[in-house]
Write a structure and sequence with these properties.
CATH superfamily of the largest domain: Periplasmic binding protein-like II
Radius of gyration: 21 Å
Distance between the termini: 29 Å
Protein name: ABC transporter substrate-binding protein
Helix content: 40-55%
Strand order of the largest sheet: 2-1-3-11-6
Subcellular location: Periplasm
Number of domains: 2
Family: Belongs to the bacterial solute-binding protein 1 family.
InterPro entries: Bact_solute-bd_prot1, SBP, TAT_signal
Structural class: alpha/beta
Keywords: Signal, Transport
CATH class of the largest domain: Alpha Beta
Number of helices: 19
Strand content: 5-15%
Largest sheet: 5 strands, mixed
Number of strands: 12
CATH topology of the largest domain: D-Maltodextrin-Binding Protein, domain 2
CATH architecture of the largest domain: 3-Layer(aba) Sandwich
Length: about 450
């Protein structure tokens, strides 16, 4: 859901697609991924430079099967095109700083796959990939509007939204039911009742209140937006110091009092560990918790389910989902090879295979892939299919750009929520600090 926000984006690139191929195509007569890749490379409109070799940086996996399939796809690309790809992997929270360093020094990875803020932090350093985006959008049914907006600046594509990592509520069915709820609550009022009941039952909950790039940003933005708070208005004026934000922070203070201790230091992996060890009965995360439980044949797997974020006083979904953008640097010696790889990674059938092996951790950003069987073979994945259509974007309710990316990367919202929740500052002080910090990015 894009609410009432309008974006200056290339609708032609996002919406065209009458010639789209059906997603879900099998390898068929090609016989193997490599055979198909060779056929694709021979006919692709993107052709690498002779002798090209590129370095790609991506974030460490949260779902093992996804990572394995990604490696297979990269190997098939090299086999088919002759382009050697050095694939480096780092912890998620380290990708953004490394991208900034590479942009500043003009050297490092040719391609980076990482968090959504990166393209808008370094737009002038990135290779124009409008031709890749138009090609893919035309072939596969068009792009979803929200993730596409993260890749566009001044009418040109500076990055490709490879996928969205859906971030929703992960919960233990039996513990929620024991606390008096047949299913996970759909309103913030009932979420508070559930949270208190869970604590009373000795099965508390908890969500990351540390500087967690994915999980912390996702739920902290949701809860502020759910109460009507927002960092900026439609004109980009900072308005976070407001009665609506104060209501959100008072709400979080009460939640935090009923959570398991220690969430103020959690990063993007702590909540996974806490849930799988049985320490918490709900948290927010991608589907990686459930995927790990299934893979490890844990008894807990049958007791795990997922839910949308509850609706707050504003009366509509206020989610912040997490596009993962893939971008190439202008300094690359092999820009054509970079474009070839970006296009390859989203071509059927290898993209279908990758989606399937991500078991719901990634949501497609091209509409033709909605029919992938990953969404129908397990009903516990269903909510994640909606990640691209329910989300607001990181700039809400103002424009996307450097200011929005900078405030997100600097954890302005997360720090405000954490400071108020833990009592490090008063609600008023937390909002005033956030207002001042945000104004450094949104200079008038």
């Amino acid at each position: 859901m894009t609410d009432d926000i309008t974006r200056s984006v290339s609708r032609r690139a996002m919406l065209k697609g009458s010639t789209a191929l059906a997603a879900g195509a099998a390898f068929g007569g090609a016989g193997s991924l490599v055979d198909w890749a060779r056929a694709w490379a021979a006919e692709s409109p993107f052709q690498p430079e002779k002798g090209a070799s590129i370095r790609m940086l991506r974030w460490n996996r949260f779902v093992e099967t996804e990572d394995i399939q990604f490696d297979k796809n990269i190997a098939a690309f090299t086999e088919a095109t002759g382009v050697k790809v050095r694939l480096d992997k780092e912890f998620l929270d380290d990708i953004q700083p490394k991208a900034a360093v590479a942009a500043n020094v003009g050297a490092g990875p040719d391609i980076i796959w990482g968090p959504m803020a990166i393209p808008h932090l370094i737009p002038d350093k990135l290779l124009d990939v409008t031709d890749v985006a138009d090609y893919l959008g035309g072939k596969y049914g068009g792009w979803y509007e929200s993730p596409a907006a993260y890749g566009i600046r001044d009418g040109r594509w500076m990055a490709i939204p490879l996928c969205v990592s859906g971030n929703y509520i992960n919960y233990r069915v039996s513990q929620v039911q024991k606390a008096g709820f047949e299913t996970f609550p759909t309103t913030t009022g009932d979420l508070m009742k559930l949270t208190k009941a869970l604590k009373a039952n000795g099965t508390p909950a908890g969500m990351a209140l540390g500087r967690a790039t994915g999980d912390g940003n996702a739920w902290c933005h949701w809860v502020v937006w759910a109460h009507g708070g927002k960092l900026v208005d439609k004109d980009g004026n900072v308005v976070i110091n407001s009665p609506e934000t104060a209501a959100a922070l008072e709400y979080v203070k009460e939640l935090y009092e009923n959570w398991i201790p220690g969430t103020a230091s959690w990063n993007d992996s702590n909540n996974n560990k806490a849930f799988l060890s049985g320490d918490v009965s709900y948290t927010n995360n991608g589907i990686s918790i459930y995927a790990a439980a299934v893979r490890q044949k844990m008894e807990m797997a049958a007791d795990i389910d997922h839910a949308f974020y509850p609706i707050g006083p504003v009366g509509r979904p206020t989610e912040l989902q997490l596009p993962f953008m893939i971008e190439a640097f202008k300094y690359s010696k092999y820009p054509n090879a970079c474009k070839t790889l970006l296009a390859f990674l989203m071509e059927a059938p290898q993209y279908d295979a990758w989606l399937e092996q991500s078991v719901g951790y990634f949501t497609q950003t091209l509409k033709s892939y909605e029919s992938n069987k990953v969404w129908s073979e397990d009903p516990k994945r269903a909510v994640f299919k909606e990640a691209c259509t329910r989300t607001l974007d990181m700039g809400y309710a103002g424009p996307l750009g450097y200011a929005a990316a900078g405030a997100l990367a600097d954890f302005v919202i997360v720090d405000m929520v954490s400071q108020a929740a833990t009592g490090q500052t008063t609600v008023k002080e937390a909002m005033e600090t956030a207002q001042k910090r945000a104004e450094r990015y949104y200079r008038v």
